[in-house]
Design goal:
With about 60 residues, this protein is α+β, with helices and mostly antiparallel strands. Helices cover about 45% and strands about 10% of the residues. A two-stranded parallel ribbon has the order 1-2. β1 (about 5), α1 and β2 (about 30-35) form a beta-alpha-beta unit. It is elongated. The model has no long low-confidence stretch (mean pLDDT about 95).
Length: about 60
C-alpha cells in the first residue's frame, strides 16, 4: 500500500487539489494529513483564508470516506 503523507498545509489549499490528483491517478492508495492547516506568516488577521483552509480540509476528508 502506498500512503501519501500531506505535511504542513499552512493555508495552502492547493495542496489538497494536488493530493486528489495523486490519489485519482493511483500513485497512492491512501492519504494521511499531518494537519498543520493554519499558522502562516503574517496571516493571523486573514480570517477568510482560515475559513477557506478549514472548509477545504473538511471537503477533502469527507471525500475520502
Amino acid at each position: 500500500m502506498k500512503v501519501l503523507v500531506i505535511p504542513d498545509i499552512h493555508l495552502k489549499t492547493w495542496i489538497f487539489d494536488r493530493a486528489e490528483s495523486i490519489l485519482k491517478y493511483g500513485k497512492a492508495d491512501r492519504a494521511v494529513c499531518l494537519m498543520d492547516i493554519p499558522d502562516d506568516w503574517d496571516m493571523e488577521f486573514q480570517v477568510e483564508r482560515y475559513r477557506e483552509a478549514f472548509d477545504r480540509t473538511i471537503v477533502f476528508l469527507l471525500e475520502r470516506k
